[in-house]
Amino acid sequence: MPVKVRDILAKKAQEVASVSQDATVAEAAHLMNQRRIGALVVTSGPRVVGIFTERDILCRVVAEHRDAAQTRVHEVMTAPVACCQSDTELEECRAVMTTRRMRHLPVVDDNRLVGMLSIGDIMAHEAAAQQETIKYLNEYLYGPTR
Fold it and tell me: How far is residue 75's CA from residue 140's CA, in Å, rounded to a whole number?
């Protein structure tokens, strides 16, 4: 049975880090630094309107010599943002993230932000699945380990 995004989200913290599109880049960067994360979902009210990442800071703020205290997130965020749903298969998300060279994918159900899937989440899931397969094959070949 294919793994769904909801299966990954069930193992993660429920809170999704987000920022208003009207926040300053400095405020957003401070939040990212405080939480030790690389991306924030950008919202306008309850609606997801973009994503703001470390790369946005580097390419659209620092490289362009913008003032982080004066620049608003909506001026430099990545938009439109690709999203997925809780019932999307993990393999489809991985394909989208690989093709578009993205590391974060907001999860939106019924126009409501419910989570954030990262490429790290996908890699951790795949590594765990491979470890299970290795363990199974090892026990098949050599018997149960003690």
Answer: 57
- Please report the domains of the chain, with CATH numbers, ordered by start residue: 5-142 (3.10.580.10)
Whose structure tokens read 């899937």?
A: 117
DSSP at 58: I
Q: Which contacts qualify for 99-108: CB closer than 8 Å, 24 or more apart?
A: 103/38, 103/39, 103/53, 104/38, 104/39, 104/51, 104/53, 106/16, 106/41, 106/48, 106/51, 106/81, 107/5, 107/9, 107/83, 108/48, 108/83, 108/84
**Quick one: pLDDT band at residue 140, thresholds 50, 70, 90?**
confident
pTM comes to 0.83
